[in-house]
């Protein structure tokens, strides 16, 4: 129909839908047409910018025929949406590789602390009282963090 534009809505799982709208429609109207009842959960992104102003028209945002708008459902989903996953959505992500960057951080810090204690015990004359207190504090902090991360 004349005066209507097609908008490609692309989701995080690489699925696409086509929406038909008028250039005079606002972002809020587009959300209510495409996602009835879920308007507050949906985030629309066009050319890297989040479309937050619900009153802006598609024309004022320079959204033309066959443009792509990326859609993201926020985590503040209702209980019904949590029970019924979106079509085509994958289940929970599998755990990462065993040697991901973050998994080596705690052992590395533990080795550095062990070296600190080794030098503290063998070279006492080089450690002042504030340095020893700092080493004790860092050890306690890292211990609590390690148990907090791995004790779950």
Automatic annotation (TrEMBL):
**A biological-process GO annotation:** ERAD pathway
- Sorted UniProt keywords: Membrane, Transmembrane, Transmembrane helix
This chain's protein is named TMUB2 protein
Q: Which regions span the lipid bilayer?
A: 99-119, 126-150
Q: Which Pfam families match?
A: ubiquitin
Query: What InterPro entries does the record point to?
Result: TMUB1/2, Ubiquitin-like_dom, Ubiquitin-like_domsf
Q: Which PANTHER family match?
A: PROTEIN C7ORF21, TRANSMEMBRANE AND UBIQUITIN-LIKE DOMAIN-CONTAINING PROTEIN 2
- Supply the gene name: Tmub2
């Amino acid at each position: 129909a004349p005066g209507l534009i097609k908008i490609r809505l692309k989701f995080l799982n690489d699925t696409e839908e086509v929406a038909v709208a008028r250039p005079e429609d606002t972002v809020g109207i587009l959300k209510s047409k495409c996602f009835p009842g879920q308007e507050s959960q949906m985030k629309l992104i066009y050319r890297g910018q989040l479309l937050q102003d619900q009153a802006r028209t598609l024309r004022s945002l320079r959204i033309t025929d066959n443009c792509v708008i990326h859609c993201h459902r926020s985590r503040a989903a209702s209980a019904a949406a949590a029970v019924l996953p979106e079509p085509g959505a994958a289940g929970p992500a599998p755990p990462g590789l065993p040697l991901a960057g973050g998994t080596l951080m705690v052992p590395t810090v533990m080795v550095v602390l062990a070296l600190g204690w080794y030098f503290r015990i063998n070279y006492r004359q080089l450690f002042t009282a504030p340095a020893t207190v700092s080493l004790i504090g860092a050890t306690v902090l890292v211990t609590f963090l390690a148990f907090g991360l791995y004790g779950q």
